[in-house]
Design brief:
CATH architecture: Alpha-Beta Barrel
CATH class: Alpha Beta
CATH topology: TIM Barrel
Number of strands: 13
Strand content: 15-25%
Amino acid sequence: MTTSTRAPQPAGASGTFLLGGDLPVVRLGLGAMRLPAGTIRGPARDPQDGIAVLRRAVELGVNHIDTASFYRRDNVNAGDLIRQALAPYPDGLVIATKVGPMPGPDGTPSRQATPGELRALVEDNLRELGLDRLDLVYLRVGGMSEPGRELVADRFAALAALREEGLIRHLGLSNVDAAQLSEALTVAPVAAVQNAFHVHHATDTTLLAQCARSGRAFVPFFPLGGGRDPIDPGRLDEAAGRHGVTVRQLAIAWLLATSPVMLPIPGTGSLAHLEENVAAAGLKLSEEEAASLAEGSEQASDPRAARRLP
């Protein structure tokens, strides 16, 4: 019997989850939004920085990468970076993407695709990533607005038809409420929900609990407080110091402790931040500590908020 000399992969300390019931992923993944640029309207990064981050993420055991064709700045596109860095793709790598937003007059994704426009967006992702089939495609709804306010069945049906053709393996929804999830489920199975969620913005606990009961993944975007509702670092400083970790690491550990279906995807274009984020996979919080860290956060009225859900 030979002993493996392969170095341990620290992302694996976060545990695994069967995405869609058949794709095993390490729970701590990587979001690709910050690979082309550090901020939504900031200058493009050096593509070699993004390529280095992607390769190091895989070395650290990350096998779930979340991207979108509209993650781009100038001529730097996240899908192109993923293909350049990782193709031919290693066995077990799961790439998720989102479709729905379309560029407006200023080039930012400010309008939404019609059902008839979704095929072209899926084909763009296939071409950029160099794939014949996409593992997981989310219908991204509503831009930067709060979830709700619009119907999703027609657009979700267009993606379901592409799934039947074999272009997509699993379907997901992003930025939706419980009613929109129920509407989509009348059309096709939903493998994952991707909504804004972090330690101080835990407004979707009821939807999270619904995902947990059904074995559906819940993927928090802005897990470290980007977007409209930033994390208040001062409220986490004491606990971070007690554990000897950074506030970012504590926020990731809180997500992992909150529910077994939670799959955080912190994004970065920095190797140092990547290493820091992945190291958080090994930090274990008790149910009581996880609940105390989220006290006073913007939460729904669900009494299980800020606790580990079933």
